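Forwarding the complex inputs:
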Amino acid sequence: MHALIQGVILGILTGGVYALMASGQTLIFGIMKVINLAQGAMVILAAYLAYQLFVSFGVDPFLAIPVTTVLMFAVGFGVQVAFLRPLRREDKVELSLLVTFAVALLIEGVLSVIWKTTHRGINTGYANDSWTLFGYQITVVRFWAFALSLVALGLLGSLLGRTRFGRAIRATVQNPDSALLLGVDAQRIAALGFGLGAATAAAAGSVYGLLYPFNSGSHYDLISRLLSIVVLGGLGSVGGAVVAAVIVSTSSAVVASTVSPAWSEMTYFVILILVLLVRPQGLFGTVGRGAI
Amino acid sequence: MSAAKGSAFFAALVTLPLLGLAHWVLNLLVFVLIAAVLSSAWNLVGGFAGYPSLGHAAFFGIGAYALGSVYRHQPHVANGYEPFLWLPLVGLLGALVGAPIAAVAMRTRADVFAIVTITFLFVVQTLAFNVRGITGGAQGMALPIAPFPADGYEAPFYYVLVALLAVVMALTFATMRSKVGLALGSVRADEDKARGVGVPVTGVKVLAFAVSVGLTAMVGAVWAYYQTFIYPQFAVDPLITISMVLMTFLGGRATLWGPILGAGILETGQQYLAYRLGGSQFYLIAYALLFLLIMLVLPRGIVPTIAERLSRRRRRAVTT
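Prediction (whole assembly, two chains):
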């Protein structure tokens, strides 16, 4: 029982971080109908940026986020303009998948040339502190990571819900053709949206670097996690991704703490298959029309 | 025309090792053949049906570990050809694992299919590392060393791969000429419409996937036997998937010769790069950049582009 509850606590706290990563991915899908297989690689890239800022200038990874957010936004924007925009319309879905996978490999290659393949970790002074609540351990880093993710998700939510730019994005998600007719510049929204999705990877990367040791190949671990989250939540639904992230990481943490860590990876795949069998559109997805 | 081209191609392949080539050339040819069979197999589902699988490397690994498990406690085999006799069963295993996954993953759209297959790839990779009882984990797994004479060590592997290439090319040819191929083409063009007019959409998709991953598993087994020692990071490697996709795209999707041409060009280049750059990470960058370049500049591939040029020229010759 103790292991189970500890697993649930861990799952919820970790879920917040994955929610942030997955929200960017599902947002990109919502706007462009592109599954960004490079989302994990972008998180790792951001983790390296935070690592370097910490090592070279002693910047705390939480404080580095504004800087890395801007950089990651530029990366996402650049990827969309350089590689996705020129694709021909007739096989865009198929090709864009492969292009984002190639971008993931490109990022991995660049990272391993610059930082080699040894595992890195961001060891702040508070890295090993933890609180004990009713006999359950909560590490300080995880708690702040969770809190930060909530703040970032809140900012993303109000950007989408309350600004003109957010309204243009939501219009594009719901009906790209009508949005175009009403004067939304689809190309611009796509590039900005991709940038925004990549920007969510910045905060997630800082947190990831604090929580886990990582190397250039770590994005492979993230790909399957993020994909099962966005499918469970419903492709294109940011709210769904948040709920799904908590469900997925809680169940995998419970499997890890009660069965064996070796099989926790399998949880993602089982969840993915179950969702596709029972409810292919995901928890909050709609059939045909997009919604955020 | 095509039959003559095919027999000339295979006659050349069969006679090549008789020319007394150096070991490194034969070794290179073995890897080119592995790549050619793999990408032709990928083409069956990724090219003809338009369902881009990103998980084929998992089946490559399943095949490698399946053959490894057969010879688990056997460091030597008396008859070096014996492991090849297991290939049909390995292929069947791959197809049996693949079919239910395809049946679930292909219910919805091509992007969900890609998600499921890539997730499957990473699950299998993690399992290969963690289920030590079967795979030996990170320590790797040994296969028996083939008792072939050192002089012609590569030749048996070479000929088995030529046979597999003949099988996959025959299947591709049959696909292009049969109702199955027509059905797959209609799936790629407009799946809903195809279903509407009564094409057994699900059946042909799952069939194409099962055959494709079965062949992939067989190549994995041959590769494992050739390597004699396998590690999870090489047996279940996302780069295997990506090179299958890349070779097919470079040569031309849904064509008979495209994947083989792509494999010939890229595998040779890849071996050269690995030799020159010593398997460093620059190699990953070069590969990814080449991939992006092909997608952007030559998305239809070499074979269709040349075929179109030729037919345009022929038409012009007829009109003048």
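Strands of chain A lie at 130-133, 136-139.
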